[in-house]
Amino acid sequence: xxxxxxxxxxxxxxxxxDVEALIEGRMIVALSRIFIECERQFAxxxxxxxxxxxxxxxxxDPKFLPIAKGAxxxxxxxxxxxxxxxxxxxxxxxxxxxxxxxxxxxxIWTRDGLQEILAKRHNLFLxxxxxxxxxxxxxxxxxxxxxFISLPYALNNFEAKPILxxxxxxxxxxxxxxxxxxxxxxxxxxxxxxxxLTISQLAAKQLDDDIKVxxxxxxxxxxxQPDPNLAWINDIAKLGDRSIEQDDKKTNYxxxxxxxxxxxxxxxxxxxxxxxxHKGGAGGLDLFCSKPxxxxxxxxxxxxxxxxxxxxxxxxxxxxxxxxxNQAAKLIIGxxxxxxxxxxxxxxxxxxxxxxxxxQKLVKLQSNHxxxxxxxxxxxxxxxxxxxxxxEKYIDQVYTEMSLRSQMITVVKELSEQxxxxxxxxxxxxxxxxxxxxxxxxHNPRLNDELVHDLLIELSSPLTGYLxxxxxxxxxSDRFYFxxxxxxx
Length: 489
Hints:
The chain is of the alpha/beta class. The chain folds into 3 domains: 177 residues, Archaeosine Trna-guanine Transglycosylase, Chain: A, domain 4; 156 residues, Restriction Endonuclease (3-Layer(aba) Sandwich), CATH 3.40.91; 84 residues, Orthogonal Bundle (Arc Repressor Mutant, subunit A), CATH 1.10.10. A hairpin with a 3-residue loop joins β9 and β10.
């Protein structure tokens, strides 16, 4: 299954929803009217509903039906976009009820629909497809003359980029060949339930991506692409510097306003709940966060953070929320240097001072590794006075903890890859002691079984899904297997 240079001159015509499910990694099989030789390769041509021999409602699983209808709605045109190609890895005739049940559970089709098609055609070939992305979609005229059509021109000189990695594809193929049921049917139900929300809601899209990776429907690299909606994170420090430039030139206050806005966005991404009744302005409190704990903040543009900043934050905080201010976290954020008097006042009043660069590092950490920033632990590092060095210590600590977990996942992956080819067809799993011995042979500091088990339990939680767990009679007999990597950005 090596990635090699390919040449494509034909395309197989499949219903558009089937092609979308193959590209998504939701399934690895397609239905064919003819036998297809192993290793034959072809583009995937998304055809309209006329290719179905049954009404759409009988053909597709109810939970996939809304997606199927939407896919067909978008393909009624004079030209077609081809986004992927595939290589046939196996061609079989599913000729028993048990087979049809297994195919239905691991695909988008209904069992009754498959049975009806089989009864009509008397032969139905199930093709196992290794699907690859094309470097760029190609547009071809709509053409449904047969199951295979010739492309207007041959596609060549590009590298094969599989949708699923080698190991995931082998496991999925073995699961289907051996009629094994889905491992996580409840998560598949959840994914179908939120699918319609992914277009308009970023949080739903992120959850959808994570579920697909956990289910083995997507490659890890597909969900680690930078989100263009978060490009502003790279501008946090720049906006602080711009406020200094405008302060020097004595021009307008737009840069200061932009800086305040990006600070609010930053705190919100970190997990704070912003009270937008406080939006700064003349005589106003710049920001107030109500959850997970009260935090009062003041944003200061310019080359110097003046003496009266602490007094201003104290007065405004006591005026707006006297019931919360004394016990709340207090934060001053600005690109300039705090004066000596401000440093002294901030220490007395328990106010932390940080630069935009430090805030940007925190937000990048949270953006690259969602929920990695524990706001209650962060609060402990917001020391009175200049706190950049302390917050940097917290950021380093988080990266250290994530690196340990990433190393633990890599150890389980290495053990899996050392297994022979036969065991790769299933989930090779390992005891806590086996994993601990392999880890201690190559890493420091040395860990004991109890700590390794705690880490493995965390990494095999359904909310993380980096490892799988086979529960034993006690914790020492638990077994763990590799699911996906944890890249540290």
